[in-house]
Amino acid sequence: MDMATKAKLLMIVPDKWVGLAVTPDTPVETVLHGKDAYRPEEIVYALGFRPPPGLLRTLPNLKAVFSLGAGVDGFLSDPLYPRQVPLLRFADRSLAAEMAQYVLLQVLMVHRRQRFFDEAQRRGEWRQAMLPRRTEETRIGFLGMGETGAFAARFLVELGFPVSSWTRTRKTLSGVTSFAGDGALHAFLGRTDILVCLLSLTRRTAGILNAEAFAAMPKGGFVINVARGAHLKEADLIAALDAGQLSGAVLDVFETEPLPPESPLWRHPKVTVTPHVAAISQPGIVMAHVLDGIAKFERGERPDHIVDVEKAY
After folding, report:
1. Which CATH architecture has domain 94-273?
2. In the chain, at which end, N or C, are there fewer CB atoms within 10 A of the end residue's CB?
3. Alpha-carbon distance 44 to 64, whole Å?
């Protein structure tokens, strides 16, 4: 296929991504938004994560949009997103595995009181301490149970932790107690000592980590959020930590990113901040998925991982 006849892929991404798709047998020509000149009617496909509001609406011949991450809220939060255009999320086992590694690391750090021993080392103090509770009594709860949650839950079950999940519809996973629907949320929270948020961000889940949720958890509960910053009401979290209702939190995502220097989360003694690094999409792997999806569209086939824009996942 001659380059002049190739479909154009608008890449709303950092410069490092450019050139990854340009090979003689690649079915697209890449165009970098903000750098390369193009006519809107030339663009057939788009790749990005949080495109400028209204941009995709200006592309009249758009066949499909690809997210370079698992989440698609950066597209659907745009009221001008052309909802008739298929939106595909990035789904890859390696990304799910990285996220699961992060979750397991943080759960075990909390359970094994690693930060207590880190502080003792900084002080040069030999301080032995018991675990806060036995493994069999430390209840792990997952808000959301997709591929990442299932990956991490299987390991935690094998280690002897009681594990439960809360989802929109009931899930079946060996060793995991399933709670489903709004009416089951408080019962789920009431038996959760370490809460892990892996939900997709939708209108229903925004702000779900709030004062009411924290009050429903056992006193001394712990929160780990690796989903989206908008799931968490940060002021409610700080209030629950200061009141002793929660014993701590690990946050990898924030409503404003980068997290502003003036945010109290940076300095709160019970909060661990990481800069949205639980799992990072690898450009080469993402592009392979995008090119496979484009090839299927060009053959008239339906690719995997098309998002239901009403459900937002």
Report:
1. 3-Layer(aba) Sandwich (3.40)
2. N
3. 7
